[in-house]
Structure formats: C-alpha cells, structure tokens
Amino acid sequence: MNVRAAPGDSWNCPHCGERILRSAATCPACLRHLRFDAVALARPAPAKVCPLTVDGTIQHPGTESPWEYSVLIEVHDERGEMLARRVVGVGALRAGEARKFTLRVEVLVPEKSALTAAS
C-alpha cells in the first residue's frame, strides 16, 4: 500500500531524529536515504528552489572575555503567529575566533510550477 502524504506532512527521520517532510526521499539534515525507492527508481528529484538565503559572520574582538551564543530559528505564519522556535546550535567564541552562519529555506515545487520554469 502506497499512500501519498499531504503537502506539509512531517515525521521524524529514523536515522537522526530531525523533524522532516514526509515527502523527502533523503533527509536534509543527515542526507541518508529514507525509502528504498529513493535509490531503486532513479527518478529525477523534485525541483528545489531557495527563495531565502542569509549569510552572516560574527567575530570576537579579542579584547573581552569569551562570548556565549545561541542560534535560534523562528517560523511565523502570515498573521505573525509563531509556528516554531528552535535552538539549532550553541557555543562560545574566544578571543579572535569567528563563526559563519547560513540560513537557507529550500522549497520543493511541483513539476508544473512557474518557479521551476523560471529556474
């Protein structure tokens, strides 16, 4: 029995435990295959676009004691209501150290979408 998941349905990756889309053939967090057909059928992957990418770097100035940091991600709906808030990383910066952070939002689009035609 093969039941298609509704758009947005999610579950936990059996390998790493991250919450991911049920439609994913591979986990975007650990990159491991989730279904036997992901390898066997060799069908083209759904088109992926990245409508949002944010890169940033923080650097400790070297004149102060170590800084502690938390990397937070918040997702809000169109009314501004918070749907999710997660800590995705924590750490410390010592004198002269730097960290680069990248936030990406990847969107899987249907084959007949205007977004796939434009990319």
Number of helices: 2
Mean pLDDT over the full residue set: 83
Instruction: Kindly name the structural category.
Output: mainly beta
Helix content: under 10%
| Extended strand count | 6
The structural domain count equals 2
Task: Summarize this entry quickly.
With 119 residues, this protein is mainly beta. The chain has helices spanning 37-40, 114-118, and strands at 10-12, 19-21, 47-59, 67-76, 82-93, 98-109.
Report on the architecture of this protein:
This protein is mostly beta strands. It has two domains: 1-45, no CATH class; 46-119, no CATH class. It has two helices and six strands; from the N terminus they run ββαββββα. It has helices at 37-40, 114-118, and strands at residues 10-12, 19-21, 47-59, 67-76, 82-93, 98-109. The strands form three sheets. The protein has a two-stranded antiparallel ribbon with strand order 1-2. A hairpin with a 6-residue loop joins β1 (10-12) and β2 (19-21). The radius of gyration is 19 Å and the shape is elongated. The mean pLDDT is 83.
